[in-house]
């Protein structure tokens, strides 16, 4: 599918540009918040714009929506719709923790009333010591790509995740008001699971994909 290939290529281009911006340290606060009340940094807005611009430039994306702009935005194409968080974990970027981008691609011209089972592409980019994209494309093996000299290279394939004894729990404060969540955390600790938590969902989730084991919750 040439249209899907083009969509993925433009997402990858956007991720390469965001990686460069992360390295350049564009982390100043801009005194605004998104619809969900999260304080925005300059790089949040920049990453959002880059992704929208690249999706529009692809010529194949009909609709896109992001965490920063959570409405359907018409981009001129007719084949696919894309939802994304341009920079997950930006609140920890100032401490030089890894952060990332997460995205999903659906066939058609709308994101409304869609399910995960309808996804044709799901993926995440991690901006850390290396810049990588882990991507699952329907009917193909899932794979990791690494950015080197402004080009993406395939480094490995992966498939299922086993149970393993790694856990990455988000929103730990909720355990104080949610008895079931607190019980689950106690189970993992009692059974000597290894905690892997950075404060950013994308890196936490990606490590489980690459290691092939563990559980993430939020």
UniProtKB/TrEMBL annotation:
Stretches assigned to coiled coil: none
Keywords: Carbohydrate metabolism, Hydrolase, Magnesium, Metal-binding
Pathway linked to the protein: Carbohydrate biosynthesis
InterPro entries per UniProt: FBPase_C_dom (IPR044015), FBPase_class-1 (IPR000146), FBPase_N (IPR033391), SBPase (IPR023079)
Top-level taxon of origin: Eukaryota
Domain Fructose-1-6-bisphosphatase class 1 C-terminal: 162-218
Domain Fructose-1-6-bisphosphatase class I N-terminal positions: 3-138
Keyword Ribonucleoprotein on entry: no
Gene Ontology molecular function: any one: fructose 1,6-bisphosphate 1-phosphatase activity
GO cellular component: cytoplasm
Pfam family, one: FBPase_C
GO biological process: fructose 1,6-bisphosphate metabolic process; fructose 6-phosphate metabolic process; fructose metabolic process; gluconeogenesis; sucrose biosynthetic process
Family statement drawn from the similarity comment of this UniProt entry: Belongs to the FBPase class 1 family.
Protein name from the UniProt record: Fructose-bisphosphatase
Organism: Rhodosorus marinus
Lineage: Eukaryota, Rhodophyta, Stylonematophyceae, Stylonematales, Stylonemataceae
């Amino acid at each position: 599918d040439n249209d899907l290939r083009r969509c993925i290529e433009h997402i990858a281009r956007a991720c390469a540009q965001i990686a460069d911006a992360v390295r350049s340290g564009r982390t100043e606060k801009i005194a605004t918040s998104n619809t969900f009340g999260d304080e925005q940094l300059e790089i949040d807005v920049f990453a959002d714009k880059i992704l929208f611009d690249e999706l529009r430039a692809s010529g194949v994306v009909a609709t896109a929506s992001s965490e920063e702009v959570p409405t359907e935005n018409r981009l001129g194409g007719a084949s696919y719709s894309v939802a994304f968080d341009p920079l997950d974990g930006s609140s920890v970027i100032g401490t030089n923790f890894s952060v990332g981008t997460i995205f999903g691609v659906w066939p058609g011209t709308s994101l409304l009333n869609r399910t995960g089972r309808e996804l044709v592409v799901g993926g995440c980019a991690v901006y850390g010591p290396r810049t990588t994209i882990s991507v699952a494309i329907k009917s193909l093996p899932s794979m990791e790509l690494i950015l080197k000299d402004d080009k993406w290279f395939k480094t490995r394939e992966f498939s299922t995740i086993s149970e393993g004894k790694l856990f990455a729990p988000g929103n730990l404060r909720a355990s104080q008001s949610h008895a079931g969540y607190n019980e689950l955390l106690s189970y993992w600790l009692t059974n000597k699971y290894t905690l892997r938590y950075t404060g950013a969902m994308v890196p936490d989730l990606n490590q489980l994909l690459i290691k092939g084991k563990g559980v993430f919750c939020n």
